[in-house]
Amino acid sequence: MMGTKISQIQKQFWVLQNVYRKNTAYNIASILKIKGEPRKDAIEYAIQQLISRYEALQVYFEERNGEVYQLSISDKPDIRIDITYFTEPLQEDKLPEMVMNEVNGIFNLAEWPLFRIKLFSFSDGVHLMTIVFHHIIIDSHSKKIFSEEFSGLYNEYCKNSFSVPGKITGNFSDYITWERDWLGTEQFKKMLGEWKNYIPKTPENLEIPADFPKPKINNLQGKRIHFGLDKELSLHIRKFAEEKLVIPFTVLLTAYAILINRLTNQSEIIIGVPLTNRRKSEFKDTFGCFVNIVPVKVRFDEDISGIELLKQIRQSLLLAHRIQEVPFLMINDSLRNKGTNSVLQTGFTFEPPMHLSLDNLDTQSLAVEKDGSQLDMFITLWEQEDEFNGYLEFSTHLFKDSTAKRYINIYKRIIRSFLDNSGAPVSGMDIISDTESNLISEWNNTDTKYSGDICLHQVFEQQVQRTPDAPALLFGRSSLTYKEFN
Predict the structure, then answer these.
(1) Overall pTM surpassing 0.85 (yes/no)
(2) Rounded distance between C-alpha atoms, residue 238 and residue 236, angstroms
(3) Model confidence over 229-243: pLDDT tens digits?
(4) What ranges in 90-230 are assigned the alpha helix state H?
């Protein structure tokens, strides 16, 4: 079978998965807690129907002569869902290793299927269902399509009342053909030129304070820490956004930009923001991975106020939406230096967890403690029951858990400070808690009594005698011992 050459977005995931073969940063995973008795046959029916309906769920990938092709399975698969039984009750704060292995299992892009669904049954009558895709076949909008249609198909099977599915507007291979033709048009060249004008030079690397030296190449090792914004703060965010005629996303992105600025003290930063890339009506509800992460530039001019920054970011988002079809790979290649891997080191998005509405079952999405980090730092938020919840995904090769938690707390303080003082310069926003302020005072209390009988250079020579091989001077990854420095 010849197959179809892959899209630029798929190419990005293909390259990453083949460079980091054991990494699962691009697993799109959901864990659903189910109370009641889920019907295995209804789940299998729903999955079978979705595979038959959507090309993206039928594909795998193959490389031939330097080109990667998307191929579809030739035979209709016989779907069977595995159930694992546990003799213990479910402990949500400590999920079984088998469940987490399913979430963090590696996909081989050359083998179908590129999704997995399993059931786990516990002694207290509670069930877990894991649904895991590789990002190369799905994005947030497709995940919504999947959850809605899976729920409908499951429910109609249980009722023995079947409906005729609506007509789909196109397959993902149609989009690939459209993109290949579009990349040769004047419109594409104009849009790429606008990206180059928007970011005319290679962005500086973000110097976010880290616990460990930054590796030359992001190895995608990481984890998540979940957090929430309480109802009072969430209500304040919504009211502020309404007053300023923006959406809460823009408010929370602005606060995140302030966080990165305060951590790095850099006057210009780039934040990756995923956009749906579905402006063409024929692909609005096509199943597949369309999402395109784009660089949003934020300038911190001297004494810029919070409200001025909010307006600037809103304008940047409007520009990015207008030219979002240009694949990130091409934006990145036009901007980066040869020695850099990507212009993006941090990102921000809104993406809710998967939700299923299954008759006679109570389903709840659980926090997924998934391995891997797509960037150095990436915040994902969503609105749920009048509160904003989410997680910070971070590189464990750069940050300790304690540092990630501290950055989350600083982010929360910045949100409050921004909402309360949006007209004030962002440089004056308080990001340090009282506890941290007292700790800094203790660190700075370095008064020490020295003998007046010897000079400072003699004190140093005494230290050389005591610890000749200890580090005396550190700069980046270089160091000098006391003996060398002496």
Answers:
(1) yes
(2) 6
(3) 999 999 999 999 999
(4) 97-103, 140-159, 172-182, 186-198
